[in-house]
Fold each of these.
Amino acid sequence: MSNKFTVLLAGVSLALAATAQATNVPSQWQEGKNYQLIKPALETHSGDKVEVVEVFSYACPHCAHFQPYAEKIKAELPDSATYVYKPAVFFKQWEPYARGFLAAKAMGVASEGHQALFDALHRDRKPIRTLEDLGHFYAQYGVDPGEFVSTAESFVIGNQLQQDVAWERKAGVMGTPTIIIDGKYRFSADTAGGNEEMVRLTEWLVNKELAARKKGAAN
C-alpha cells in the first residue's frame, strides 16, 4: 500500500468519524426525556438575548453543588445570551432567602455575595435563617442591615417575588436547580443526567434557539 493511499485513507476515516460524531450530538438530547418543551412559551425579560434562567434557593444544597457549573455556563455563554437567577419558595423557610436575594439584587450586592452566601450556609454551616441574619451577612458589602430588611419586606420586593413564583409555576418547575432556556425549554440534573450534562445541554439549547432565530430572521 502506497504512503499516498495510506494518508488518503486516514483522512477519509477521520472525516467519517467527525461526521458521525457531529450527527450524534443532537440525537443525544431528546425532548420529553432530557428536557421538556414549555407550551405556551413564557415571557422573558432580557431583550434580544436568549435568556438562561436558573430557578434556585440558597437553602437548597443541590443548588450549592451546582453553583460552580452555573459559573461555567455563564463564562461560556455567547454575547447573544444572558444568565438570570429566579428564587424559588417551595417551603416557608425558603422565603427569607428569596426575599433576601431580590433585596440584595435591588441594592446591587447580589452578585458579590452569591457564592459567599452558599459557602456560609452549606460549607461553614452558619445559622443564617432570617432577614435580619441576611442583613448582617450583606453588611460586609456595605449594606445597612436595617435598610436591607425594610427593602426585603417592601411591597416592591413582595410583588416581584409573587411574579417570579407565578412564572416558575407556569414553567412547571418542581425542584431546584432547574434551568429554563428562553421560556421554552425546562430541565434539571435528573433529566439531563447530572450537573456536567446540564452545562452541555444548556449550551446545546442556547445554540438551538439562536439557530432558530437566525433562520426565522432569514425567512
Note: Residues 88 and 169 are 10 Å apart (CA to CA).
Amino acid sequence: ACRQMHLGRRFAVLECAACRTQRVLPKALNEQSAAATLYNQCAGLDFTDFVPEQTIKSMLHRLQETQIHFEPGKKVLDVGCGSGILLETLCEQFHCVGWGIDVDQRRIDKARARARHAAFECGLFDAARLDQKYDILLSTAVIEHVVDPLGFLKQLGHALDDGGDLFLLTPNARSLNYRLLRSWWRELLAIGEHIY
C-alpha cells in the first residue's frame, strides 16, 4: 500500500508503507535510454564543478570504513562517475586502473580534460558491452536516477569479478538533512531527475 504526498507545485511522491521507499511522480524517464537526452539537453550549471576537497576526503573516508582495499593494479569501474574527481583521486593515490562512465557529455568532457590516471566514456552503463570484469565497482548517487533499480543492480553484479567489492551511495531520506529540510531536501536533490 502506498500513500501519495504532494510537495509544493513540482513534486508528488508515492511512499511504500512497508519499506518507506519513495518514488517521485511523474517519472522523469519512461525508459533509461531517454537519460542521454535528459542529461545533455540542458547547458545549465554543473554542480560537480564545486566539489570541495573536503567532500572528496569524506568520500575516501567512507570507502575506507567499508574496508574495500584499493591496491596497485586493481581494476576500478565508476558507474555514473560525473566529472571523474573521485575515480581520478583513487587511481592517483592507490595506482588502480580506473574506468569511468557517465551519460552526461559535459561531465565526461571535464573528466577527460583533467584525466591523468583513469579513462572515461560517455554513455549508458551496459554490462553486456564490457570486455572485462572489475575488482571494485563504485556507483555514487546513481541508483535513484534509474528506471529499473533491480535491473541496474543485476548489471552491476555482472560487471563485478568474483569476490569483488561494490560501493553504492544514494541520498538517505532518513538523514538529518532530510529531517531538517523535508520537501526542500527532495526538491534541491531531484531537480526533475530523481525517480526513486
Note: The first strand starts at residue 2 and ends at 7.
Amino acid sequence: MSDIDQRAHLLYAADRTDQGIDVFDIASPQAKFIQTIRMPSNPNGLAIAPELGRLFVGSADGSVVIVNINTSSTTYGAVITEVKTGGNGVDLLDYGAARQRVYAASAADGNSISLHATPGPNMTHFGAGQN
C-alpha cells in the first residue's frame, strides 16, 4: 500500500521486508528514496492527513500507528502514538478531512473503526459498523 502527500511531494509506501514505511521524494520525474520510518509491526494500509502533518498506518498487529510527517518539524518521521484497535490486523484506511477522522477496517475479522485524527483525550475508536 502507498499514499502520496501532494503538498510535500512525498510518496509513502508500506515495506513489510523492512517493517517500515519507505519515503520517496517525487518532486522530479525520477523518484528518490529518502528513508525508512520503522514501525512497531508490519505495515499495511496508509492514509495521509496533509493539513495535520500526519500519516496513519494500519498494522498487522491490529494497531493504527500515527506518524509525524510535518516536514518542517524536528521530529519528522517519529511515531506519535499507537492506537490498539483490538482487531486481528488493520489493512484498509481512509481519512475524512471534513470531520478529521480516520476510518480503518480489518479484512481478517470484518471490523471497522473510526478514530479522531488528532491524538489526545478525544481520540476514541468505535466498533464494527459505527462511526
Note: The two ends are 23 Å apart (CA to CA).
